[in-house]
Here is the input.
Amino acid sequence: MNRLDGKVALITGGANGQGAVEAKLFVEAGAQVIITDIAVEAGKQVADSIGEGCRFIEHDVTSREAWQSVIESVVSIEGRIDI
Here is the structure.
């Protein structure tokens, strides 16, 4: 059993750097991961490179409305957010 089996993680800034590395590690540890970023193409590429278990949603963390939308989207896709 992996440490994050059955968990759902939302990682902002997932299109590069620390966010992308964390997303990969979380998927390897068993989590379903949603990465978000304003860099759409880079975010899609990261999610595709990680493969199954990782999805991308465009998200501007400076927007209150965007936060509400991304939370609703993740809950709609995965049923909840654990991390």
Q: What stands out?
A: The mean pLDDT is 97.
